[in-house]
Design a protein that fits this description.
alpha/beta, Rossmann fold, 2 domains, five-stranded parallel sheet, two-stranded antiparallel sheet, globular
Length: 365
């Protein structure tokens, strides 16, 4: 068994190496400097399609083609890209696949948190060598951003608005001047052609740090929406659950499509505040109830059905995950969930098994 077979989650460029190689072979269109594929081929990789030799490219993003074209076109210029949207709209997923397709490397990442230091964006020091040698090239520890500048590749900054504002602004010189000064060495790193940056941010978190107008101007902003339709969201969840199930050695249960549809319907109704038929208004809980939450619920149900059931995902398998996804605030959300169960789920005869499974969980709590 190869090393890749032992990895819990392979990077996009590893998992889809065959598709990327097929696209590179078939791609005869102009490529921007340092790009592995042309913009057309990158879009095909993201959105799926069939190559002239019959190779099927699986879609990585199910949504607006135009949004992806705008994102790719921005990265072909000197403007950075900001993917923004509520949690679960595939921002990180898209940024990883863009980096894999364009640079062949999605691992140059800065993970934004409230404690992200400036060194994560600029550079740091090996303090043992710094004390022994003083400031030197050997003592310098390059950040992912610095490495991408030197290599002429893409770098990803996840959850940009979680990073403190003064740390965010260290990107301004990098994005505007395409240079990273190193005053301690009286030198600088100049970005090679092909360098660019993809940042993600969600507009639902509380306590985020807004981007300064100076920094925001240096990005092309693309807002990734929630899926337009129930069918589209069901297909996204089905695809991701099948992929995760295969990587975790959980059998992909295509018979669970009806359960996926029910889980997605519940989440769409609760986050939208109205039932699918538009007849009943419901209260929305504090949780985001995104597509990512639906994927998590179904993956958990798949595990339960595999290890403690008959391998077919049923209402009892998804109930626990569904309640956990909805009820984040044990006081407010519990009331909202109970009301939804009694006024909506209970009145759908075809959902009687789901109603009973959720009620049974309440009885054992």
């Amino acid at each position: 068994m190869s090393t890749d077979d032992q990895v819990l989650r392979a990077h996009a460029e590893q998992q889809y190496a065959g598709e990327l190689a097929a696209l590179a072979s078939a791609d005869d269109r102009p490529r921007p400097p340092q790009w592995r594929l042309s913009p057309w081929a990158v879009a095909t990789y993201l959105l799926g399609g069939r190559l002239p030799d019959g190779t099927e490219i699986t879609p990585k993003y199910l949504g607006s083609r135009r949004l992806m074209e705008i994102a790719i076109a921005s990265l072909a210029t000197d403007r950075a890209l900001l993917l923004i949207g509520v949690p679960g709209t595939a921002k990180s997923w898209v940024s990883e696949h863009l980096a894999a397709a364009i640079s062949g490397n999605s691992t140059l990442v800065v993970q934004g948190t409230a404690g992200t230091p400036e060194e994560a964006i600029r550079y740091g020091w090996n303090y043992a060598r710094l004390l022994a040698e003083g400031p030197s090239t050997g003592a310098l520890v390059a950040s992912p951003v610095m490495r991408a500048m030197g290599e002429g590749s893409l770098v990803r900054v996840e959850e940009l608005t979680r990073i403190p504002s003064d740390i965010q602004d260290s990107l301004i010189t990098i994005l505007s001047e395409k240079t990273l000064p190193i005053p301690e060495l009286d030198t600088e790193v100049q970005a090679r052609r092909g360098f660019n940056l993809i940042a993600t941010a969600n507009n639902r978190d509380k306590g985020v740090n807004d981007l300064s107008s100076a920094l925001r101007r240096r990005f092309t902003t693309v807002v990734l929406p929630l899926p337009d339709s129930l069918d589209q969201e069901v297909e996204i969840v089905r695809t991701r659950v099948a992929s995760l199930g295969a990587s975790l050695d959980l059998p992909a249960d295509l018979a669970a499509l009806s359960e996926i549809r029910r889980v997605v319907t519940v989440m769409r109704e609760l986050r939208g505040g109205v039932t699918a038929d538009g007849r009943t208004t419901v209260k929305s809980p504090s949780s985001t109830l995104s597509t990512a939450e639906a994927i998590s619920v179904m993956t958990s149900g798949l595990s339960l059905a595999t290890h403690f059931g008959d391998g077919t995902v049923g209402a009892a398998d998804v109930a626990a995950g569904l309640v956990g996804a909805v009820v984040k605030d044990p006081v407010q959300d519990t009331v909202i969930w109970q009301e939804y169960l009694e006024t909506v789920v209970r009145n759908r005869p075809e959902w009687s098994d789901l109603y009973r499974a959720c009620r049974d969980l309440d009885a054992t709590a």
